[in-house]
Design goal:
About 35% of the residues lie in helices and about 20% in strands. The protein is of the alpha+beta class. Strands 3-2-1-4-6-5 form a six-stranded mixed β-sheet. Helix 7 packs across helix 9 (about 230-240). About 25% of the residues are buried.
Length: about 400
């Protein structure tokens, strides 16, 4: 962390986050405060008031979000987490803040680890990372070396007000049960021994991912080649952010047995078709407009270029009536009129066994009437054919 940066602090009003806020305020960091009131317990307003009064006293900017459980269908915990981090991101963007500080501590790290082990999760990282990106916002956990007792003692010693969430005493939640049955019975020495174990596991995972990543150097693979990459299971598990062994096994099964399958995670795509496996980043749609042919000559972008020379299946002859000319990506329903009738662009892709990765980047040229006049690889439409094309669009 750097005092030249501005930070948002996530503060619930409990001793952990109040200690975090007070520690870094006294260290001279610029802090703004974010509080989320879920209105799920009677003491929720007390916690909000505690945080607000601290901010008033120390002249800190206070941001609040109200979330009501009756608005939510399904898993409230997952919904609340998403709303919370999207709230943090919105504040950081608007206030030009570097990151959000959260008060996860050593006991939280150990609880997460024991939950991962108990559920037999095939994770890409055990415990909690000090630095992470969640919902597009940078998250920093500066208290992972501190125990909950140390943070509670800090608040009491420094007269920092806090509230206790009474739901923490219940064993209805898996995390609370692990905390009460395991964490609370461990000495500081025992906790540090488990921490060493976690660090060693994460070191091995990092090494395996490094080896696998060294083989991932292109976007298209013959499927046996891809599945023989060392530690590919670890790599896929990391890429798709899913700890379930069943889910990972299903991905591998389909890659081995299915003729065609498709998986997505965030902006990455993994799919199998035509005996090949593609692993690539989603391409943004593009849309270029040219007002005359001089603008087109020698144009280059990531996906295509426009040249004065080329092969006939990439060429077209243009008239003044064709301008402005547009080059864009494929959309459902696009078709071109040929000598033998209309041809759907998607049919062209299928007939030529063009991979989905390539389809998403394939350039199409349209005239001022929004008529497709050039499909590279097939040629120009019926009305623009010539023995001497003016311009060629090369993928």
């Amino acid at each position: 962390m750097n005092k030249q940066y501005r930070y948002l602090t996530a503060v619930s009003g409990g001793p952990d986050s109040m200690a975090l806020l007070d520690m870094y305020m006294k260290k001279g960091f610029y802090l703004e405060v974010a509080h989320v009131n879920y209105h799920k317990r009677a003491s929720a307003q007390r916690d909000e008031d505690t945080v607000f009064k601290y901010c008033q006293k120390h002249h800190l900017k206070f941001h609040k979000l109200d979330v009501y459980s009756e608005e939510v269908e399904g898993n409230f915990q997952a919904y609340a987490r998403d709303r919370r981090y999207l709230f943090f991101k919105d504040i950081c963007d608007k206030e030009n803040l570097e990151a959000v500080l959260v008060a996860h501590h050593l006991d939280d790290l150990l609880e997460t680890y024991f939950m991962q082990k108990e559920r037999q999760l095939n994770v890409s990282y055990y415990g909690l990372k000090r630095n992470n990106i969640i919902k597009g916002v940078k998250v920093i956990r500066p208290l992972l070396s501190k125990t909950k007792k140390q943070l509670l003692d800090y608040c009491n010693k420094n007269n920092v007000s806090y509230g206790i969430d009474e739901s923490n005493y219940s064993d209805d939640y898996e995390r609370n049960r692990i905390r009460h049955e395991l964490i609370d019975t461990m000495s500081l020495k025992e906790k540090k021994e488990v921490l060493k174990e976690i660090k060693e596991l994460n070191r091995k995972i990092t090494e395996e991912l490094k080896i696998a990543s060294s083989y991932i150097n292109k976007e298209v693979y013959e499927y046996k080649e891809f599945l023989n990459i060392p530690y590919i299971e670890r790599y896929l598990q990391n890429c798709f952010g899913h700890p379930s062994k069943d889910y990972l096994n299903e991905i591998l099964r389909q890659l081995k047995e299915s003729d065609k399958c498709h998986f997505e995670y965030e902006d990455m795509i993994l799919e199998k078709e035509y005996g090949m496996i593609e692993y690539y980043r989603k391409s943004d749609e593009y849309h270029y407009v040219f007002n005359n042919i001089e603008e087109m000559y020698n144009f280059k972008c990531e996906y295509f270029s426009l040249k004065k020379k080329g092969t006939s299946v990439n060429g077209v002859t243009l008239s003044e009536d064709d301008f402005p000319v547009t080059v864009r990506t494929y959309r459902d329903g696009d078709f071109i009129t040929m000598k033998y009738g209309t041809k759907k662009v998607n049919r062209f892709f299928i007939d030529h066994k063009i991979l989905n990765m390539e389809r998403s980047r394939w350039p199409l040229m349209f005239n001022a009437k929004n008529e497709l006049i050039l499909l590279p690889g097939l040629g120009c439409d019926l009305y623009h054919y010539s023995d001497k094309h003016q311009i060629f669009m090369v993928k």
